[in-house]
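From the methods appendix. Each design record in this collection lists the tokenized structure first, followed by the designed amino acid sequence. Records were kept in a plain field format so they could be parsed without special tools. The example shown here is representative of the layout used throughout.

RECORD:
FOLD TOKENS (611 positions):
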């Protein structure tokens, strides 16, 4: 066994010998800027320009930008107040996701002074949503703790925060109406953490309206808050629903109860947000690993496509002038923030990221239906190739035709990369997403096995040089796959995985406990046989392949103790493995640390696979 610590040199300025795979990680990136509703020239975005992902303020009127946060392990959770005067950011400890909200003026606080507590009187917790009032005096703050479950508080400047909602099950703040008189929340009081119901409250906590699709039908259906109308006195709430087997938007007048089904004729999942004047909706359509944008006019009911290149739109927002800004990429081209005006909205200076190879679509017949897989391979390469099965996390997520530095690094080193949108993935309808209940992990592995059989049978993959890897849920599936399918894989690389499902349940953050109870049908004490069947620890003695595991010691999602339990079992029988622990949470926001982890994985595979 090999152990490593998390120290890494600061090498933010690469030399000319820096390989392309490393440049992709080092190249400055930016998120889609959020902008203040009543001060649209003021924006907030995330960038890794200093080598660590931090929050940045941007005054579009002057062009000035400044770094808002500066912490050793980075900061990405921030909100700009509607008046543009304040930046709220979440202050946790080294990535443990347990902390408090702080705030500073948009122009910056006093030099050397600590940013003030945004909600004095609220103790540290896991965040469960935040909505800020237009007057900068009011905030709706969601909190989650192991002791209390979820609480939602109304925080008004000059008064103690007041509890307006409390429940043991998971819940979260959805939105605050334009005039501050209505608060929309998502809750799972019915016990199904995968399908939320909605409730609208007044600031005193009394209920105005309920919308619940989890009862009365053969299947429980989910709802999500997409936002109140941005117009004074308009009580319509934009809602996402699953009534036709996929995500679609509807309008719900929370005072009259009237529902307006938009019934957009689009085959995939559809989300939406308001145009700033309330006259239309910016519609995001995701289908078969790509996405596109539309404008839906609420008056004429016309759906007009917003021009974007083929690939993936990771986020979009409509500006007051009617233009649309969006974050776009493809597997071949790095991400950029663009505008329908034709301009590149943010173009960070410095090193530019090299591109990669396009993705190819593969459809494979599996035990639960057609499985969509995305394949990349070195240009001109002929199989059979050493092949990396890079399994996405979530599980309620999906791989898409978007730029990803990790897969590109494998391609640079001569590997084919296969990514599988297994049952449990989003983007292929509600039934596909919900299919993994009770046989958690085993369902996904059946789909991965079907794609593996295709990859070998097609001549793409060398069956003796197959690597199974992934992070978070993908790391969990990696360890589970190495034990359940021990003859299928030559190596396994698991980042921040679930390794011992029972211990993970008891140690993880409260919201994830609720998700696990939904997925497995109860607690480890109530359904011990399901936890046993779905836990990598159950199969650890069957693992034949060398195993590499990386873990954040402060991770609240896949906690370190349950990983240590798995590693001890590997040690006890002398199994080939390496473990890398680093000082962060569920992944790192430090560029050097990310590069180090990829390098360690590449070197591990090279040693054991000889590629």
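DESIGN:
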């Amino acid at each position: 066994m090999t152990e490593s610590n998390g120290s890494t040199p600061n090498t933010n300025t690469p030399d000319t010998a820096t390989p392309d795979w490393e440049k992709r990680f080092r190249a400055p990136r930016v998120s889609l800027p959020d902008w203040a509703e009543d001060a649209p020239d003021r924006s907030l975005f995330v960038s890794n320009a200093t080598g660590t992902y931090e929050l940045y303020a941007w005054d579009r009127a002057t062009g000035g930008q400044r770094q808002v946060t500066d912490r050793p392990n980075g900061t990405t959770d921030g909100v700009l107040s509607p008046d543009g005067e304040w930046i709220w950011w979440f202050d946790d400890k080294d990535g443990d996701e347990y902390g408090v909200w702080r705030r500073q003026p948009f122009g910056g606080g006093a030099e050397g002074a600590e940013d003030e507590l945004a909600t004095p009187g609220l103790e540290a917790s896991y965040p469960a949503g935040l909505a800020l009032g237009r007057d900068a005096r009011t905030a709706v703050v969601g909190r989650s703790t192991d002791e209390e479950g979820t609480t939602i508080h109304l925080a008004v400047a000059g008064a103690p925060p007041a509890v307006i909602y409390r429940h043991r099950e998971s819940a979260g703040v959805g939105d605050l109406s334009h005039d501050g008189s209505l608060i929309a929340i998502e809750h799972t009081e019915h016990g199904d953490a995968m399908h939320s119901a909605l409730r609208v409250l007044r600031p005193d906590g009394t209920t105005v309206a309920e919308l619940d699709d989890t009862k009365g039908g053969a299947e429980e259906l989910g709802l999500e808050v997409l936002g109140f109308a941005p117009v004074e006195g308009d009580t319509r709430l934009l809602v996402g629903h699953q009534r036709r087997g996929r995500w679609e938007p509807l309008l719900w007048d929370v005072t009259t109860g009237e529902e307006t089904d938009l019934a957009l004729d689009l085959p995939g999942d559809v989300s939406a947000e308001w145009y700033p004047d309330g006259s239309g909706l910016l519609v995001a359509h995701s289908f078969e690993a790509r996405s596109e944008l539309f404008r839906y006019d609420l008056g004429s009911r016309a759906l007009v496509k917003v021009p974007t290149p083929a690939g993936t739109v990771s986020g979009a927002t409509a500006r007051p002038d009617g233009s649309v800004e969006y974050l776009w990429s493809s597997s071949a081209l790095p991400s950029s923030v663009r505008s329908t005006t034709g301009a590149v909205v943010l173009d960070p200076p410095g090193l530019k990221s090299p591109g990669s190879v396009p993705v190819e679509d593969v459809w494979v017949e599996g035990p639960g239906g057609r499985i969509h897989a995305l394949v990349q391979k070195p240009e001109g390469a002929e199989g059979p190739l050493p092949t990396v099965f890079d399994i996405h996390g979530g599980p309620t997520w999906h791989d898409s035709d978007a730029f990803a530095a990790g897969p590109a690094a494998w391609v640079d080193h001569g590997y084919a990369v296969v990514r599988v949108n297994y049952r449990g993935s989003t983007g292929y309808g509600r039934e596909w997403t919900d299919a993994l209940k009770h046989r958690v992990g085993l369902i996904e592995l059946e789909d991965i096995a079907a794609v593996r059989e295709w990859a070998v049978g097609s001549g793409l993959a060398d069956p003796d040089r197959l690597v199974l890897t992934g992070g978070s849920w993908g790391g969990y599936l990696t360890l589970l796959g190495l034990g359940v399918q021990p003859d299928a894989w030559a190596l396994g690389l698991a980042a921040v995985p679930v390794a011992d499902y029972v211990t993970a349940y008891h140690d993880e953050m409260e919201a994830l406990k609720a998700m696990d109870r939904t997925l497995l049908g109860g607690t480890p004490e109530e359904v011990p046989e399901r936890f046993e069947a779905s836990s990598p620890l159950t199969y650890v003695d069957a693992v034949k392949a060398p195993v590499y595991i990386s873990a954040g010691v402060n991770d609240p999602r896949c906690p370190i103790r349950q990983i240590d339990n798995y590693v001890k079992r590997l040690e006890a029988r002398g199994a080939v493995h390496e473990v890398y622990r680093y000082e962060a949470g569920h992944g790192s926001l430090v560029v050097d640390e990310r590069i180090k982890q990829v390098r360690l994985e590449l070197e591990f595979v090279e040693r054991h696979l000889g590629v």
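APPENDIX NOTE: The CA atoms of residues 43 and 597 lie 32 Å apart.
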